[in-house]
Amino acid sequence: MRSPRLAAAGLALLAVAAQPAPPPAPTRAVGDLVLLTADTVIPGDLYAVGNQVRMEGQVRGDMVAAVTRDVLVTGTIDGDALVTGGSLVIEGTVGGSVRVLSGSVEVRGSVGGDVLAGAGRVSVGEDGSVGGDIITAAFSLDMAGQVGRDILGRVWQGVISGEVGGNIELDGRQLELADGARVGGDVRYRSPSDLIIGDDVEVVGTVGRRSNVPAVRARSVLLVTWVLGALAFLVGGLLIHLAAPGWSGRAADSVRRRPFMSVLAGLIALLTVAALLAAVGLVLLLSAPDLAVAIVAVSLPFTLGAVGILGLGLALGPVAVATAVGGMVARRASPYTHFLVAAPLIVAMPFVPVVGWPVLAVVAITGLGAWVRGVRPRRRPRPAEVAQP
User: Fold this and answer.
1) Positions of the chain with pLDDT under 70
2) What is the dihedral of CA 287, 293, 298, 303, to 10 degrees?
3) In the prediction, which pLDDT does 107 show?
4) What pLDDT sits at residue 228?
């Protein structure tokens, strides 16, 4: 009888050993200057908030940074880099993609994936390389290095003097293929002026100017709005998890455990603010002009504050829902991972025909109610007192 029992015990041990190890907890760094020296190794993700970030070491996961001045990467990031605020300079290596919303982006090192940038200036130096695509909405684009695939977007001024493996599709005011540029695909552009082509330029495909600029501008505005909104949603969600982990945890738990109560709380919040606005408007209509001015002076700060809080709650509502849904998929991961797992579903919802926007509205109202319910910490049950004999 021992052999079957030993075999069963061995199989149980193997099953336990075969389970994947939980991911390392993210490292949080907050300060005026966040400095990671060359000998620093972050085993998981890095979340940095501050004035400046200097990353000289290695991050084996993703790096998320929100700064007021600049981020300088001279080390190695194995995953993605998500940066908002200030400027970003990459002199080291980013194994994944770069998603940034800042004043300027400069790639002097290597990016293995894509660069998705909303910035005033986007630059790839002569020694810089991007393995995937460059998708940008910027005032100026200067690409002197290498891009593995395509360059897409809208710029005011764009100069390409390096090597592009795929196509170039740009909408801009002044576009130029400078001396020595190499394009492995087609060049398609929209501009009120002709494309400037320098000497010794090689284009494997065709060069064509497309019409219908106003329609392209409208699509470009929608694309830029979606890109900036998606970045703001991702960064805002991570920051609120970092700043208020208890509140965000209670909000996600409300969505997961009491979804109908969350919807009800969200509807009550919406109706309360709407009733406030209607009451103020009705009083103004029925009041004398002199009294109406006084009413506006007194009620305006409270009304604007209520509308602002409601708008912020609706904007951050999907964060709670995404965290709750992600927690059902990746139960053992951190709340940051829960949010990032389901966030792409929220971001892609506007592109779903017919039902996309209504579902997004329900998600926002549900999340709003969850944040409202999560304001008060849950009461822990008091232990029963046992009477002493």
Assistant:
1) 1-22, 211-224, 284, 288-297, 378-389
2) 80
3) 96
4) 72
Q: How far is CA 74 from CA 58, 90, 116, in A?
A: 9, 6, 20
Which among 82, 66, 26, 30 is positioned nearest to 334, based on CA atoms? 26
| 189's tokens | 């552009």
DSSP category for residue 263: H
β-pair partners for 175 = 158
Report, in angstroms and rounded to the nearest whole number, the Rg of the chain calculated over CA atoms: 26
Report the 10 Å Cβ neighbour count for 49. Answer: 20
Which amino acid is residue 329, in one-letter code? V
Query: Which DSSP state fits 95?
Result: S
pLDDT tens column, 337-349: 888 888 888 888 8
Report the C-alpha dihedral over residues 259, 261, 264, 269, rounded to 10 degrees: -100
CB atoms inside a 10 Å sphere around CB 22: 10
Query: What are 189-193's contacts with CB under 8 Å, separation 24+?
Result: 190/216
For 104, 207, 382, 384, the CA distances from 387, given in Å and listed in that order, are 69, 89, 15, 9
Q: Is 296 exposed, middle or buried (0-12, 13-18, 19+ CB in 10 A)?
A: middle
How far CA 331 is from CA of 245, 327, 335, in Å, comes to 17, 5, 9
At residue 205, what are phi and psi to the nearest 5 degrees? -90, -140
Report the alpha-carbon angle 205-207-211, nearest 5. 135
Please give the pLDDT value at position 386: 46
For residues 363 and 237, give the distance between their C-alpha atoms in angstroms, rounded to a whole number. Answer: 15
pLDDT at 147: 96
Tokens (6 digits) for 195: 């494309």
Tokens of 275: 């009733």
Chain centroid, CA 126 distance in Å: 29
The whole-number pLDDT of residue 119 equals: 84
pLDDT of residue 196: 93
Distance CA 54, CA 245 (A): 25
The span from the CA of 165 to the CA of 185, in Å, is: 7
The predicted model scores a pTM of 0.57
What three-state secondary structure class fits 345?
Answer: helix
What residues contact residue 191 under an 8 Å CB cut-off, 6+ apart?
A: 171, 172, 173, 174, 175, 209, 213
